[in-house]
Amino acid sequence: MGGPMTALLNKIPVPAWRQIQRKNFYYWEELADFLELSPDLRKEVLPHPRFVLNLPRRLAEKIKKNTTDDPLFLQFVPLKKELDSSPGFVSEPVQDSSFQKTKKLLQKYQGRALILTTSACAMHCRFCFRQNFPYETQTADFAQELQYLQQHTDLNEVILSGGDPLSLTDGQLAQLFAGIETIPHIKKIRFHTRFPIGIPERIDNSFLQILESSSKQIIFIIHCNHPQEIDIDVAASLKRLQKLGIPVLNQAVLLKGVNDNEKTLLDLSETLVQNGIIPYYLHQLDLVEGAAHFAVSDERAQELIQFLQENTSGFAVPRLVREVPGQPSKSPIPLPSCG
Ligand SMILES: *Cc1c(COP(=O)(O)O)cnc(C)c1O
Ligand code: SF4
What we know:
The protein has helices spanning about 5-10, 15-20, 30-35, 40, 55-60, 70-75, 145-150, 170-180, 195-200, 205-210, 230-240, 260-275, 300-310, and strands spanning about 100, 105-110, 110-115, 155-160, 190-195, 215-225, 250-255, 280-285, 320, 330. It is of the alpha/beta class. The protein has two domains: about 15-85, no CATH class; about 95-330, Aldolase class I (TIM Barrel), CATH 3.20.20.70. A ten-stranded mixed sheet has the order 1-2-3-4-5-6-7-8-9-10. Helix 8 (about 170-180) runs parallel beside helix 10 (about 205-210). The mean pLDDT is about 95. It binds pyridoxal-5'-phosphate (PLP) and iron/sulfur cluster (SF4). Pyridoxal-5'-phosphate (PLP) binds near residues 106, 108, 112, 114 and 330.
């Protein structure tokens, strides 16, 4: 090994956010020690889950010690109850594979296509609907995807998803942006990301420069399920996006034990809005294997939305939806009419 290429790569400095990410918790014993779990609580943890543990330090620091009853613990720490099988919970609940147009591009809806930019994420969420997706991860080459966008002139928006698009390096993102820039009918670039919640340092100058140099309208949809996920650093990093005229919206998943109560959801909406972030969707859980313990009934979900409607500004109430494969959009779950 060696040679001129390796020498060149060695000269590229590793960005600060990547160094932070390398310190994530990946080993359950180390995390159990950090969280000071009692021997009994340790028995509830699933040591070697198929979808591996991956948790940024800053999120682990927010978790209460020696309990499993914590909204962040439940979202990120694998538990043995993930192994319980439950009727209706399947490997690929939203059938992404059947909407694959190229190796890394899905199109389900009119006007917008979604690129699976990478399989990597800042953190691993136990309820992730895409945890079993057979990602093509050999390269960060998007030639086929760009060609699809180019050829489909009815598209006007490209969604960068994954995994998490902010896992890409700035070099990879810049290249993808350069490709999109050459396609005049694409007017919007939308990011779906949870990165700023786990590693807000990712929104650094070099990344902001890529966004700033694009002629397209950029939109950020972050994914935050509990008000504790937002703090001063997270808010400040999102503010940097907002200062560039980038709208920031939030989507959340309704999760039993995490946010399925009036106070938490109201708090979440108020905290988001306080930081200039508009609640977009509240998703009903996608029925992925291992996530049955997170399910909340539609009746309860409707009650919670009704409560929000009666207690906060209209724009602070997210739309309650679920994904039904084959439908032309996410499917709204309407409130029952009274009487
Ligand atoms: C959810 C989703 C979108 C975005 O839908 P919106 O309702 O516009 O937020 C786009 N493409 C795919 C494949 C999706 O799963
Ligand atoms: S960040 Fe998003 S894609 Fe990644 S594991 Fe969590 S829910 Fe899944």
